[in-house]
TrEMBL record, chain B:
Name the record gives this protein: Uncharacterized protein
Highest taxon of source: Bacteria
The organism of origin for this protein: Rubrivirga litoralis
Residue ranges of the region described as Disordered: 1-34
Database matches in InterPro entries: TAT_signal (IPR006311)
């Protein structure tokens, strides 16, 4: 690690000063990233926040089609969480017990101005680290905005398709809705305040899920996820204030339990972020706080007491002046629940960066209860013929992140079900990563071709199912084991088009090169090959037509009762039409129109063809 | 979307209403193949439905949304559908059409009833809502022919009242298909029309429903405000 750090410094200092920056698309704050504008989301038929992950082409896993959790291959797949930001400040989607489903953000789709997806490493949310996604919001309309969707969330082709004949029929079609009120005002810097409200529903009764969820809820109640979210935002003079809450009856799938958990949920969160210039110095900072509570609902039948509360605080400040930048960030989590002896976890980070994007060195030191670690990256760029090349070398060491394994080790018994073996958390282990990535970009006219290859060496903990006799994951225990190895990832993407046509194709191939069994197992959970081709046609300013064909290879979740997750070729289609100026918009969206076997988790639903109609009004 | 949870399906229903729209049980792989064919058919319908307006956009012009044509009529399910266990009754059809993107865009609504031929099966009604687009051509003497593709959903409401276990209640399915129509002037702005339609419904075992319908349509100039809204 020390040698690699020395190499980073040497490379950064040895790079020629004329090295050109690896150009990013306009407005792209990171190399190799992707920007999805509101127009992209609309043309792609987005109707939920989770659609952002699909349109961005990210790896994601879902059990019921509602919680779609991005899989971050930063060292070890799923060992790290994607850093999720809203307007540059950390946003809390869920507690540390649950999947970090994108849908849980207190943001309405209609207020999303653009989404920035960055592969990392880089500085975001006040800290340096791996991949992140930043949801940038803006007032969704001048005064009011509303949207109603009607469709079948996970597909629902008729009686007996999804439900075993011993189970009741459930119609999966229904409405989701969101709305906003906006109060714009004119002042020196302009600004607006707005409030959004959304309600989303899901019936997690796919054949793969139904036996678990029907057994977990009272017999006179349908198993459902009905969640409401409210948020308010204020944007004025470079200061953004957001506050949000989420509440409702929920049935999240908890990976460490291998089953859905009936939950009564409440959460509130708030953040203040600001960017100011003070002479040659640009300052940024944020303060964010979130509090969650999860309780066992009256309609739940599982004996687990749950009883979880979690409070998170995050604050950061950074300054940039010319070629120098530095910042500090601190976070603290305080949790309580049955049996939990110590619910506090905290970490502090300080980072410094010198150089420009063409030649940049970043170092970060972080301290937590369990470890002091140092990480950083060196990035150098050079033009070779028509191509712009960029080399990134990075090392990172992250402390154990709060999660069921950590909390179980500290005594938390809120998820314990009598008769079910306890989670074997093992000792807390950090995750170490060394990364080398070479990327190239060629731009000609409106066309852009990108390619990169990277090697990642990693050591850290992963969870393996240790199933009880009988071999079913439900009720089986998981154990934390250490994995170590090296993997290779290759990516390529090309985009271009004319004014009325936009085309994009992308592909990713990856796999463990060397490593132990646990390391290979972790990577086999991701498709080794993934590709996507998409086209958007805009015959005029008011009509958009979008088709995206995605394909991925099969995956294997060794240890699960049915470990194989199939390969699939999925076709998504969308048609959008604006009317009455831009005040009305209608959209029809078809997902999985080829009726592929769309499944990403061995315990998860097979997402059948889905059809949605959406109407939006912006006044 | 969240109706009261009914009791578990009683055994007697398994071969009755359980088979209502799923028809007879089949081997899983056979059902799977049928659904794959259904998916391919959906793609075949939707891809042109997306591409054709794009190609036709260049032909669109001043006539777009210049006229609206509400239509009412009777509809009668034809062969196919749900087998001999149910007898289809004539229903009603309503439609709203307007010229758009070189063809005609339309919204269509149809209601039909199905009576059970056996006492152990529930009667049901089907409400079909569709949106579509297709070209329209003048055939001479004021007669016009049209065809197109459409996509939407069918909602089945079962008259089980708890008698059949209370488990079916209702079911909504995606549907897609094509239509073929002739219409001719009758008097002034009034036109008479006849249409044949085939619809593929994404039931557990996909079903194709053919329908014939006929009625009257009124051709109206779209008011300026409506044109402004639709454009």
């Amino acid at each position: 690690m020390t040698a690699l750090a020395a190499l980073l410094v040497a490379l950064a200092l040895a790079a020629p000063p004329r090295a050109a920056a690896l150009l990013a698309p306009p407005g792209m704050p990171c190399p190799g990233g992707r920007v999805l504008t509101r127009a992209d989301l609309e043309a792609g038929g987005a109707r939920h926040l989770r659609d952002v992950l699909r349109l961005a082409g990210l790896d994601a896993v879902t059990v019921d089609g509602y919680d779609v959790e991005p899989v971050v291959a930063w060292g070890l797949p799923s060992a790290a969480r994607l850093r999720v930001l809203v307007d540059g400040a950390p946003a809390a989607a869920a507690t540390s017990l649950e999947p970090a489903g994108f849908e849980a953000l207190p943001v309405a789709l209609g207020e999303v101005a653009r989404v920035v997806v960055c592969p990392g490493p880089g500085v975001a949310g006040g800290a340096w680290g791996g991949p992140w996604i930043d949801v940038e919001t803006a007032p969704p309309a001048r005064h009011a905005y509303g949207a109603v969707d009607y469709g079948n969330e996970t597909g629902d082709p008729g009686p007996d398709r999804y439900l075993d004949r011993s189970l009741p029929n459930v119609d999966h079609w229904g409405p989701d809705a969101e709305g906003a009120l906006v109060a714009p005002w004119r002042s020196a810097g302009g600004g607006a305040a707005w409030a959004v409200l959304r309600e989303h529903r899901l019936l997690p009764t796919d054949t793969a899920i139904a036996p678990r969820v029907f057994a977990a809820v009272a017999p006179d109640r349908y198993p459902s996820r009905v969640l409401r979210t409210a948020a308010a935002a204020l944007d004025a003079g470079g200061v953004r204030v957001r506050a949000g809450g989420r509440w409702g009856d929920d049935l999240p799938h908890l990976a460490e339990l291998g089953r859905e958990m009936p939950t009564s949920r409440r959460s509130v969160q708030a953040s203040v972020s600001a960017a100011r210039g003070a002479g040659p110095v640009a300052l940024r900072g944020h303060v964010a706080a979130a509090r969650f509570s999860l309780d066992r609902p009256a309609w739940g039948r599982l004996p687990a007491p749950l009883g979880w509360t979690e409070t998170r605080l995050d604050a950061a400040v950074s300054a940039r002046a010319g070629r120098l930048a530095a910042g500090v960030q601190a976070e603290h989590t305080a949790a309580s629940g049955p049996g939990l002896t110590d619910g506090a976890v905290g970490a502090g980070r300080a980072w410094a960066q010198v150089g420009r994007p063409a030649r940049r060195l970043t170092v970060q030191a972080s301290v937590s209860e369990s470890a002091l670690s140092v990480g950083g990256a060196a990035e150098v760029a050079r033009r070779v013929g028509p191509a712009q090349l960029r080399l990134t070398l990075a090392v990172d060491r992250t402390p154990p992140r709060p999660g069921p394994a950590l909390w179980a080790r500290r005594g938390y018994a809120g998820l314990d079900v009598p008769g079910r073996p306890a989670l074997d958390a093992g000792p807390p282990r950090p995750t170490s990563l060394a990364l080398a990535r070479l990327g190239a970009v060629v731009e000609r006219g409106g066309a852009r071709v990108e390619a990169s290859v990277e090697a990642q060496g990693a050591r850290g903990p992963i969870l393996r199912p240790a199933l009880v006799p009988g071999g079913v994951a439900v009720g089986g225990a998981f154990r934390s084991v250490e994995a170590e190895g090296v993997t290779i990832v290759a990516r390529a993407a090309a985009s271009g088009g004319a004014g009325w046509l936009a085309l994009r194709a992308s592909a990713t191939a990856r796999g463990a090169l060397v490593g132990d069994d646990a390391f290979a197992l972790a990577w086999r959970r991701l498709p080794a090959v993934r590709g996507r081709v998409e086209a958007t046609v805009r015959p005029d300013e008011r009509l958009s037509l979008h088709a995206a064909l995605s394909a991925w290879s099969g995956a294997a979740w060794t240890g699960y009762p049915e470990p194989d997750v199939p390969s699939a070729v999925v076709l998504n289609l969308a048609l959008g039409k604006r009317a009455w100026g831009d005040r009305l918009r209608f959209a029809v969206t078809a997902r999985n129109a080829l009726d592929a076997r769309e499944r990403t988790h061995p315990l998860g639903a097979v997402l059948a063809p889905r059809l949605f109609a959406r109407a939006e009004v912006r006044l | 979307m969240t109706p009261p949870r009914p009791a578990r399906r009683p055994p007697h229903a398994q071969s009755g209403a359980a088979g209502a729209l799923a028809t007879s049980p089949r081997a899983a792989h056979g059902r799977r193949r049928a659904r794959r064919r259904g998916g391919a058919a959906l793609a075949l319908v939707l891809l042109p439905a997306l591409a054709l307006p794009a190609l036709a956009a260049a032909q669109g012009g001043a006539d777009d949304w210049a006229m609206v044509e509400p239509a009412l009529g009777v509809a009668s399910p034809l062969a196919g559908g749900f087998g001999p266990e149910w007898a289809a009754r004539p229903g009603a059809a309503a439609r709203l059409e307007a010229p758009a993107y070189g063809g005609r865009a339309r919204l269509a609504l149809r209601v039909a009833g199905y009576e059970a031929a056996r006492p152990d099966l529930p009667a049901f009604s089907a409400v079909t809502a569709l949106a579509g687009w297709g070209p329209s051509v003048a055939l001479g003497a004021g007669v016009r022919g049209g065809a197109g593709l459409q996509v939407g959903a069918v909602r089945y409401a079962f008259d089980d009242g708890g008698e059949f276990g209370g488990f079916l209640q209702n079911e909504t399915e995606a549907a897609w298909g094509a239509w073929l129509r002739l219409d001719a002037p009758l008097a002034g702005r009034l036109r008479v029309w006849a249409e044949a339609e085939a619809l593929r419904v994404a039931l557990a075992d996909p079903a194709t429903v053919a329908t014939a319908s006929a009625g009257l349509a009124l051709r109206l100039d779209a008011p300026a405000w409506l044109r402004a809204v639709l454009r």
